[in-house]
Structures are given as C-alpha cells and as structure tokens.
Write a structure and sequence with these properties.
With 494 residues, the chain is mainly alpha-helical. Helices cover 65% and strands 1% of the residues. A two-stranded antiparallel ribbon has the order 1-2. It is globular.
C-alpha cells in the first residue's frame, strides 16, 4: 500500500493535495474538448446540424478543463502515489462524462445511461456499443467514436509506461523505466516520454490509414478504422463491422495493425533510437506472437470452411486476433461455429496483448510470470533443498513481482465472478451475463449469445446491467487495483 496520503498533513493542506489532480485532469479535458472540434468541422462541411452539438460540447469541456488547469498551474511540484491513484481513476471517469455529451445532445442515444456507456466503452477502448444504424449515422458521430478510442489508446500507453509501474499494479513494476525513480517524478518524466510515444502512435496510425486506403476503403472509413485498429478498440463505422467490406485484404491489414497495437510502444521508441533488435529480444513479444499463431491455427481447425479454406483462415485470423488483442472487430458469427468454438472464443477474450500497448485483458507477461512461478514451485517440491531462481526476459524475477501477479489473477477472477453474478441477478441469462462480464473486464467489445454476440449489441439491456458493465469496463481498463483501492477506508484516512 502507498504510504503517502491525500490528507491535511501534506504540505499546503487539502487544496494543495488536489492541485496535481486538477492540473492533469484539466489538461486532459482541454485536449478532449479541442478534439471535439474535428467532428464539428466534419459535420459543418457535410451540412449536418450536429456541428453545433460538437461545438457546444467542445466549448463547455475546454472551459471546465481550462479552469481546472489554470487554477493548478504553477503550483504543482510533485505527485504522491495516492494522488496518482485518484488522478487516473478520475481522469477516465471525467473523460467519459464529457465525451458522452455529443451522443446525448445529438439524440443518437436516448438516455444519459446509453451516452455514458458508449463514451466509457470508447475511452476504455472496449468497443461495446448501444448505437444501431451506424451505416447511416452522422459523420461527426462516427468520427468522434474513433477519436475517443484513439485518445483512450494513447492514454493507456502513457499510463502503463509512466504511472502503473510506480503504483506497482499487478506486477507492472517489471516495466519501470530507470528514469522514474520515485512517484514524485511521475509528472515531469511522463511529460517527456509521452511526446515520443505520441509521435510513434501517430506514425503507426498514419501507416494503418494508408494501408486501408490502399485496399479500397474510402477516406472516412480508413481514418476511423485506422484509429480504432491501432487503439485495439474495435469501433467501426458499419453495423456489421469489418464483414461489411468482405475483403481478405482489409482483414489482413486489420490483423497486422491490431498486432502492431498490441506490442509495447516503448520498444518502437527504442527501435527508432537505434535499438531495433529489442523488439525481437523481448520475451513478451515473442511469446505473444507464438500464442497468437497457435490460437489462429486452432480457430482455423475449429472452423476450416472445407469448401473455401482460405475464407476459413481469414475468418480465424481476424476474429481470433481481434478477441485476443481486445479489439472487438468481427467478420462472422462465431457463435454459430459450434459449442467447442464458443468455449474457445470465450476463454481467449481474457488473454490480451503485451504490457505497455493499447491492448486489454490480463496481458501476456502475467501468464509468463505465472508459468515461472508454477515451474519454480514444482522444482522446489521435487528438490526441497534446491535453489531455483525465477527469470523474466533474461532478468531475475523478484518475489514481490510474482506475488503481485498472483494477486492480480485472484482479484481478476473474483471481480469477474462478482460481475457475472450481479448481471445474472439483474436479469441476464447465464451465458449473456458471463460473457458480458468477461468482455467488459477484458475490454474486448462483443460477447457471446444472440443478444450481445458478434451480430448483436448492448442496446436492449436495461439500465442496471449497463451501469454494472460501465463499472467493469473502468475497473478492467485501469488494471483493477487502481480503482478498487479507492474503496478501502484506509485510503481516505487522515
């Protein structure tokens, strides 16, 4: 547990303690408001009246964000770990709140619950949606959905590199950068490194957009899908997702850049700085690619399409890659592949990509740590007097990291069970409740079954299940403990 508290005992009292939180959230809200001007311009050019909605939402968001930033600017010198916990959670909640305004004010969704659900799903890059009729939706709304996921993907990269290792969440201390010696250096160091990460993120997104254009997508579809592919978010401009385009080339581009988005972005930065071999040497990347290859082959075996094996391969490639990386694109109803396939697709939802990427889920490195821990215990059981050292990525794996990862697995299972049970009590059938809990916690997007499966969406759910899923999406995206620690009384104790 962090030892520093957000209390009156901190220098300057309570208001000084919340200034770093005000500063960061004010800056983020101002950025979000500025981003709303892009769909406003698109709607204005398209002569759609929704440009006024986006302009109004942008002004309100920037005014509030600017007020928070201006009130805290010049007064912040450090950030404690407890401030970081609160700052991260509030950031995702506030970004989702203000990001919901265009959905609500435009009338695209009928209620605040639906608007907040859509916005939270976007900013957490989950990809679950309550909007139907995307093929005919206003262009500004479609672009806004893509922008939300793109910004959410960038935010989670920076957080995973600069914040979570400091908070020692679920073993993320493995990825602590040497320059980040203490939590007090989070803000200045994060500012420095976020610039490099952002440039790489923009570059990869640009490459993805060009690739989509090259395989025949229109400019609007290419831009939106590039943002949601690299962000591993899965929001599409079409109701039928990538199945609308019915193209192996589109599926191939999507699969390639979903994988690219699931690799640690700090490795791309290092590659640009003259260390390209780090991508190959990283054990997490190698294991991720190997696991993904095996799973794609299994998916192809489960649904080979004997009359058209190439089609079967691309169905497996796209849908397996999409679920493993937490993107959520679909090209076929894998519910119809049989019970074995349903079981297979349900479990691969939890895997996720690499830490420090835009992908969601448990993450590959935790499975590696789990394997090393189990292997050590087996060796210790067979040779009680032996000394066995766990290693990860050619480095010694400390016991505290192993314990943190084991705690994460336990916590993930517990939160999943509670969420699924609560959804079931709220009126969802067992399959829908379990898959909804899985897809929300792992931030995947589609679930299983006829209602929220790959050919359905979440619109028909009642408000209570939607709010449960909103909470699950937030908890899952922020690695569980970042949010749950706020419910511990000791966190708020003076």
């Amino acid at each position: 547990m962090p030892t520093q508290a957000l209390t009156k005992r901190e220098p300057g009292g309570f208001f000084a303690a919340i200034r770093p939180i005000m500063l960061v959230n004010g800056l983020l809200l101002t950025t979000l408001g500025a981003a709303m001007l892009l769909p406003a311009i698109v709607d204005l050019v398209a002569e759609n009246d929704d440009w006024q909605v986006f302009a109004s939402a942008a002004i309100l968001t920037m005014l509030i964000g600017g007020g928070l930033y201006g009130g805290a600017r010049g007064t912040v010198s450090e950030m404690t770990t407890r401030q970081a916990f609160l700052m991260v959670t509030l950031a995702w909640m506030l970004l989702s709140l203000f990001g919901a305004l265009p959905y609500l004010w435009s009338g695209v969704v009928p209620s605040f619950t639906d608007a907040y659900f859509e916005s939270m799903s976007g900013i957490t890059t989950t990809g679950s949606t309550v909007i139907t009729g995307l093929d005919f939706a206003p262009p500004g709304i479609l672009l806004w959905r893509g922008i939300q996921q793109w910004l959410g993907g960038l935010g989670i990269i920076v957080m995973a590199v600069a914040v979570l290792p400091m908070l020692q969440i679920g073993g993320m201390q493995l990825f602590k950068i040497e320059a980040f010696d203490t939590a007090e250096k989070i803000m200045p160091r994060a500012t420095q490194i976020s610039g490099s990460l952002t440039l790489v993120y923009i570059f990869i997104t640009g490459l993805c957009m060009i690739a989509y254009l090259a395989v025949g997508l229109r400019i609007d579809d290419a831009v939106i899908h590039a943002m949601t592919t690299v962000a591993t978010g899965g929001y599409s401009s079409k109701d039928s997702s990538l199945a609308y385009f019915d193209s192996f080339w589109v599926d191939g581009v999507a699969a390639f850049f979903m994988v690219a988005g699931s690799i640690p972005f700090i490795l791309y930065v290092q590659a640009v700085r003259g260390k390209p071999l780090d991508l190959y040497r990283n054990s997490q990347v190698r294991v991720f690619l190997a696991v993904l290859f095996v799973l794609v082959m299994i998916g192809w075996w489960l649904h080979p399409e004997p009359e058209n094996p190439v089609l079967g391969f691309f169905h497996s490639l796209l849908n397996v890659t999409s679920l493993v990386t937490g993107t959520g694109y679909t090209t076929t109803d894998y519910n119809a592949w049989g019970y074995a396939s349903q079981f297979f697709f349900f479990w691969i939802m939890f895997i996720g990509g690499c830490a420090g990427s835009t992908s969601c889920g448990i993450k590959i490195f935790r499975f590696q740590v789990l394997f090393e821990t189990v292997k050590q215990h087996i060796k210790q059981t067979l040779q009680p007097n032996g000394v066995f050292i766990m290693r990860y990525n050619h480095k010694i794996l400390r016991d505290d990291v192993s314990a943190a990862v084991m705690n994460f697995f336990f916590l993930f299972a517990m939160v999943f069970a509670i969420t699924a049970t609560t959804l079931n009590l709220a009126g969802l059938d067992l399959i829908t409740a379990a898959s909804a809990a899985a897809t929300a916690l792992a931030n995947v997007g589609p679930g299983m079954g006829d209602v929220i499966g790959p050919t359905g969406n979440f619109k028909s759910l009642e408000d209570l299940p939607k709010w449960i899923l909103i909470a699950a999406m937030l908890i899952g995206r922020l690695e569980l403990l970042t949010v749950l620690v706020l419910f511990i009384p000791r966190f708020w104790r003076y």
